[in-house]
């Protein structure tokens, strides 16, 4: 039976069919739905791990223990998991293990667009790349066999377009996959230098074998068309090519590391013009050029952002396309923004008014960096806020420490903020850290985490006590405040910033999308009082907007959930409640 | 089964229900025996930002992404979003615009102006444009909540999809007590775009 599935659902189904029993991940767009879906299959243990390193180590442990396992993460998550990943290539597997790297060309929801096929070369792992949901399922399943045959973890590299596109999938039988025997084998699994040296030799031998395998695996195939143009491609870009140039000869690579050199040489020899179509880095192109084969690629397409069907058509064919409709109007952009009632808004409003340097982190709250809140100075990677804040304060001294603050979400704090906080106590920093505790991993779609007290299935589990954790780390001053109580929040931040010691402020209120409280009040702007100062407008809330003609603020009650923030920022009491 | 591929672009503002609509359409196309591909935006962009989902169906579909200039039907849940994506339109394609204005942040804060006549401007340039107040029609059918179903009906009408196929999907997605209202809203939509 065929059904419509996203690429992520296809990967989950493929893992299930392959007999996976352990799966772990930290949520991250575009990878999140993989393990979320696996959690719904009977007989699969799935977990949200605190971070990607832990997730990979859990999957690795399961592999050592003889089970087929999977760890899924976004591209930057692989950086977090890189330490175990590189040495996992040395130990190899017992049960097969697939590591999914979900890359984000175009940065729909990411801080960079690194091409993780590079990890395949760097860590010496086979890399498999599906081009639609059917292949996502089939290649995932096949990756387990491949990994067990060659004794290696396998990287399944996908991109946002693959993960979040739906296409038809023919389901397969579910394999009975008995647990393999567990035997102690310290030469293979204890990577002391004395054991690791011969393992490196084994890795190189395996890569040589994989190069042979690449020549005749069904993962790579040639579709002969006209000999004028030969295209080597992989992933979803293959589908774009088939759409706009069905007549081209294509070498479709389902395995992009290692490459099939002989197959590529033969293909190149039989076409007049050779082009590589690959998003981001010239991973395939560079290797082909190193073999002395003439090939075009990045000089036509560049290494920035996503490809598209029209980009391939125009740059390879230069056709006469109809002129698009051109409007004679300015179209203002529509950037994402914090939701009405979002508890983060209160914190950023206060920080902006206090004019402190805000050392930020990754989550919905990063939107606090955009106008009109405009209150974040830095944001780099998960957990960086706390350690960046310590560094900047050590560099610029105590006076600067009193005018700068770290902000980090609850899930991000657990992911990578804890060690930074330990550093602050250990090395006697005086940083103030605000943990924006909204009781969920909001940006990726409300996943549970250790401090929500619920597991991936929503079942109760021991709740990580954030206050207790901070105390155990050695933080003496821990304040819990409601981020929508602006006066208390302001006073607390002032007090803690002034302290020559580290402190943690937990700004605690559940995500506004999770709490469906009835609207308590209906506000209106008293236009006789409103003087157009725009303080309420600077909250950047869809519930209240600027009326240009009258130069006053006005409510949009369809959006307002009466969180109470704007009446607090109005200095003239112009925001009033409709008396029922 | 027709040989031609149909390309539908559904655009709007995060939270308006565009994803639900594209999923209904994709499911209907699957039930009709077509090859179907669809793609959508998740994550940060959803937070009140511009959202777009694409549905393609036909005998054989390769790319999940619609080529610029190939959109047969553009369904916009909000009029500024119609303008943002209009350059993807195929000459002779249809445009359905829900006559709803949602101010983007730069307009809310007074940094930019919302082009007031934008829907009419599009209608002047693209003859096959239907502007509708889906909420008003839904209210006439019994509930403002059925506004998206009016739009689903218009899409079905524009694509000439047999009514019973979509009605089946509508029946599956709405609570039983709201069924009558929604079926009425759906048929109202179909009639508008036949």
What is the correct CATH architecture of chain B? 3-Layer(aba) Sandwich
Report strand % of chain B. 15-25%
The name of the CATH superfamily of the largest domain in chain A reads Thiamin diphosphate (ThDP)-binding fold, Pyr/PP domains
Helix count, DSSP H or I runs of 4 or more residues of chain B: 8
Supply the helix-strand structural class of chain B: alpha/beta
The largest sheet of chain A is:
7 strands, mixed
Mean pLDDT across every amino acid position of chain B:
90
User: Would you report the number of β strands of chain A?
Assistant: 22
Spatial strand arrangement across the major sheet of chain A: 3-2-4-5-7-6-12
Poorly predicted runs of 5 or more residues of chain B: none
Order of helices and strands of chain B: EHEEEHEHHEHHHH
Query: What is the count of β-strands of chain B?
Result: 6
- What is the overall number of helices of chain A? 22
Instruction: Indicate the CATH topology of the largest domain in chain A.
Output: Rossmann fold
How many discrete structural domains of chain B? 1
Task: Describe what this molecule looks like in 3D.
Chain A has 580 residues and is an alpha/beta fold. Chain A folds into four domains: 2-173 and 187-216, 3-Layer(aba) Sandwich (Rossmann fold), CATH 3.40.50.970; 220-320, Rossmann fold, CATH 3.40.50; 343-508, Thiamin diphosphate (ThDP)-binding fold, Pyr/PP domains (Rossmann fold); 523-577, Alpha-Beta Plaits (2-Layer Sandwich), CATH 3.30.70. Chain A is built from 22 helices and 22 strands. A seven-stranded mixed beta sheet of chain A has the order 3-2-4-5-7-6-12. A five-stranded parallel beta sheet of chain A has the order 14-15-16-18-17, with helices on both faces. In chain A, helix 1 (7-17) packs across helix 7 (133-150), helix 11 (237-244) packs across helix 15 (309-317) and helix 17 runs parallel beside helix 19. The termini of chain A are far apart. The mean pLDDT of chain A is 96. By secondary structure, chain B is of the alpha/beta class. Chain B has helices spanning 18-31, 79-85, 105-108, 118-125, 134-141, 147-159, 163-173, 179-193, and strands at residues 6-13, 35-40, 50-58, 71-76, 89-98, 129-132. In chain B, strands 2-3-1-4-5-6 form a six-stranded mixed beta sheet, with helices on both faces. The radius of gyration of chain B is 16 Å and the shape is globular. The model of chain B has no long low-confidence stretch (mean pLDDT 90). The chains are: A alpha/beta (580), B alpha/beta (194). At the A-B interface, strand 1, strand 8, helix 11, helix 15 and strand 20 of A face helix 1, strand 2, helix 2, strand 5 and helix 3 of B. Strand 8 (165-170) of chain A pairs antiparallel with strand 2 (35-40) of chain B, so a sheet runs across the interface.
């Amino acid at each position: 039976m065929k059904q419509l599935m996203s690429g992520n659902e296809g990967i989950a189904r493929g893992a299930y069919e392959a007999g996976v029993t352990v799966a772990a991940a930290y949520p991250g767009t575009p990878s999140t739905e993989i393990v979320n879906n696996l959690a719904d299959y009977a007989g699969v243990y799935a977990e949200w791990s605190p971070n990607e390193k832990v997730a990979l180590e859990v999957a690795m442990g399961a592999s050592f223990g003889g089970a087929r396992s999977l760890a899924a993460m976004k591209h930057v998550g692989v950086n977090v998991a890189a330490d175990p990943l590189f040495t996992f290539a040395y130990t190899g597997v017992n049960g097969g293990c697939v590591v999914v790297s979900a890359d984000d060309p175009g940065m729909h929801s990411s801080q960079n667009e690194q091409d993780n096929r590079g990890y395949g070369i760097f860590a010496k792992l086979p890399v498999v790349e599906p081009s639609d949901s059917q292949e996502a399922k089939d290649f995932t399943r096949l990756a387990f066999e491949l990994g067990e045959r060659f004794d290696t973890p396998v990287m399944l590299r996908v991109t946002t377009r693959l993960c979040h596109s739906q296409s038809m999938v023919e389901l397969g039988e579910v394999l009975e996959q008995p647990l393999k025997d567990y035997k102690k084998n310290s030469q293979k699994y204890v990577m002391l230098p004395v054991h690791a040296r011969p393992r490196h030799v084994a890795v190189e031998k395996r890569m040589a074998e994989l190069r042979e395998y690449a020549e005749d695996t069904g993962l790579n195939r040639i579709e002969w068309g006209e000999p004028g143009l030969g295209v080597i491609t992989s992933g979803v870009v293959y589908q774009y090519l088939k759409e706009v140039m069905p007549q081209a000869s294509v070498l479709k690579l389902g395995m992009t590391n290692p490459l099939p050199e002989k197959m590529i040489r033969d293909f190149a020899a039989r076409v007049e013009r050779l082009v590589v179509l690959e998003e981001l880095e010239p991973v395939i192109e560079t290797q082909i050029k190193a073999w002395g084969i003439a090939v075009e690629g990045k000089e036509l397409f560049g290494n920035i952002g996503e490809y598209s069907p029209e980009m391939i058509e125009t740059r390879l064919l230069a056709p006469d396309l109809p002129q698009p409709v051109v409007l004679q109007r300015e179209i203002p952009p529509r950037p994402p923004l914090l939701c009405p009632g979002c508890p983060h808004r209160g914190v950023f409003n206060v920080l902006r008014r206090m004019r402190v340097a805000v050392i930020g982190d990754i989550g919905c709250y990063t939107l606090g960096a955009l106008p009109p809140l405009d209150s974040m100075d830095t944001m780099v990677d998960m957990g960086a806020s706390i350690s960046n804040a310590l560094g900047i304060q050590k560099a610029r001294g105590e006076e600067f420490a009193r005018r700068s603050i770290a902000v980090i979400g609850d899930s991000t704090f657990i992911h990578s903020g804890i060690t930074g906080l330990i550093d602050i106590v250990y090395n006697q920093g005086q940083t103030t850290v605000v943990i924006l505790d909204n009781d969920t991993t909001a940006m990726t779609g409300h996943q549970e985490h250790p401090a929500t007290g619920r597991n991936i299935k929503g079942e109760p589990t021991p709740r990580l006590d954030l206050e207790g954790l901070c105390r155990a780390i050695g933080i003496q001053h821990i304040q819990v405040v409601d981020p929508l109580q602006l006066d208390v929040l302001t006073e607390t931040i002032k007090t803690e910033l002034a302290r020559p010691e580290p402190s943690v402020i937990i700004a605690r209120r559940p995500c506004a999308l999770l709490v469906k409280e009835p609207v308590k009040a209906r506000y209106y702007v008293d236009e006789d009082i409103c003087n157009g100062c725009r303080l309420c407008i600077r909250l950047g809330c869809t519930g209240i907007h600027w009326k240009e003609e009258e130069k006053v603020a006005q409510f949009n009650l369809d959006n307002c959930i009466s969180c109470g923030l704007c009446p607090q920022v109005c200095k003239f009491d112009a925001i009033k409640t409709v008396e029922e | 089964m027709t040989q031609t591929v149909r390309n539908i672009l559904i655009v709007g503002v995060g939270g308006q229900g565009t994803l639900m609509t594209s999923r209904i359409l994709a499911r209907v196309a699957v039930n009709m025996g077509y090859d179907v591909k669809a793609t959508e935006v998740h994550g940060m962009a959803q937070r009140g930002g511009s959202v777009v989902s694409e549905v393609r169906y036909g005998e054989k579909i390769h790319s999940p992404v619609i080529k610029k200039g190939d959109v047969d039907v553009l369904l916009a849940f909000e009029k500024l979003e119609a303008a943002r994506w209009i350059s993807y339109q195929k000459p002779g394609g249809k445009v359905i615009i829900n006559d709803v204005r949602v101010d983007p942040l730069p307009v809310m804060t007074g940094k930019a102006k919302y082009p007031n006549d934008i829907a009419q401007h599009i209608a002047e340039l693209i003859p096959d444009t239907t502007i509708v107040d889906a909420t008003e029609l839904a209210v006439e059918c019994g509930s403002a909540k059925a506004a998206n179903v009016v739009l689903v009906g218009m899409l079905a009408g524009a694509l000439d999809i047999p009514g019973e196929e979509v009605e089946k999907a509508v029946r599956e997605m709405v609570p039983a007590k709201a069924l009558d209202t929604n079926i009425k809203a759906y048929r109202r939509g179909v009639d508008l775009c036949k």
